[in-house]
């Protein structure tokens, strides 16, 4: 595969948009995965290469939320344990199962999240000042984070919606703090995924790093917006992204 200057610029630009979308909601990989496949990558290679940009975007976004005191560092480890277990299983499944499983899982998950947001919007946006629950005292949160990790390790695209459902819907984090912890979870299981994909020699580093230039920049912009935005605006953005994600999953 030959990477031209034009394709490189497109990857950086799409990475920037995806970094914003992934930091505020989820589904940015619906842009970057098709772009990598258009360049001639098989679906499994594109899936693996995409994780380079996701990993660095998460690191950049977490640092931004921490600077603004919106990352609850004491809560990171409890939410990481089930996410890591699921993420490892998902990455192994992605490396071994047929790629034909990816699209049905992606589309089914995004359609489910869209319906949930329409029927029960409080699932992703709990009422203000609702007490935050502990993972150890909330079995549904443990299960939800484990499933989110599996989905993220297997597909990645749209995992932010699943994580927010677990973090905001079962543990009662607001969208800003939920997004910060979402990035921590995604960083953790993306690390495991990358190790599996690197071991299988599926990562193309140059396209992945070009994506990362864009995703890191987009994440920094998104954090600044999230801190100052009206919660209703974040909620609307999240809902719109689920719809866009459904359309993209169906189209590709």
Automatic annotation (TrEMBL):
Pfam families: TauE
Membrane disposition: Multi-pass membrane protein
Transmembrane segments: 7-27, 76-97, 104-122, 142-168, 180-199, 205-227, 234-251
Location, primary (coarse class): membrane
InterPro entries named in the record: TM_pro_TauE-like (IPR002781), TSUP (IPR052017)
Record keywords, A-Z: Cell membrane, Membrane, Transmembrane, Transmembrane helix, Transport
Subcellular location: Cell membrane
Record-stated family: Belongs to the 4-toluene sulfonate uptake permease (TSUP) (TC 2.A.102) family.
Protein name according to UniProt: Probable membrane transporter protein
């Amino acid at each position: 595969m030959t990477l031209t200057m034009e394709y490189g610029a497109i990857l950086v630009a799409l990475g920037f948009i995806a970094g914003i979308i992934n930091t505020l909601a989820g589904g940015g990989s619906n842009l970057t995965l098709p772009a990598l496949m258009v360049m001639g990558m098989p679906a499994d290679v594109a899936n693996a290469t995409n994780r380079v940009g996701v990993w660095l975007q998460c690191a950049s976004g977490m640092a931004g939320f921490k600077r603004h005191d919106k990352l609850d560092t004491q809560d990171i480890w409890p939410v990481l344990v089930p996410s890591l277990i699921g993420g490892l299983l998902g990455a192994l499944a992605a490396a071994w199962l047929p790629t034909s499983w990816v699209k049905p899982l992606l589309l089914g998950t995004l359609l489910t999240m869209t319906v949930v947001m329409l029927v029960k919007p409080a699932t992703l946006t709990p009422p203000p000042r609702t007490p935050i629950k502990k993972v150890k005292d909330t079995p549904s949160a443990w299960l939800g984070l484990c499933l989110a990790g599996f989905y993220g390790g297997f597909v990645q695209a749209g995992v932010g919606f699943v994580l927010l459902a677990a973090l905001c819907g079962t543990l009662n984090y607001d969208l800003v703090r939920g997004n910060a912890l979402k990035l921590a979870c995604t960083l953790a299981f993306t690390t495991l995924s990358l190790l599996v994909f690197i071991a299988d020699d599926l990562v193309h580093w140059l396209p992945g790093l070009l994506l990362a230039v864009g995703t890191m920049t987009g994440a920094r912009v998104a954090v600044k917006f999230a801190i100052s935005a009206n919660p209703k605006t974040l909620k609307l953005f999240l809902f719109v992204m689920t719809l866009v994600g459904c359309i993209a999953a169906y189209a590709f």
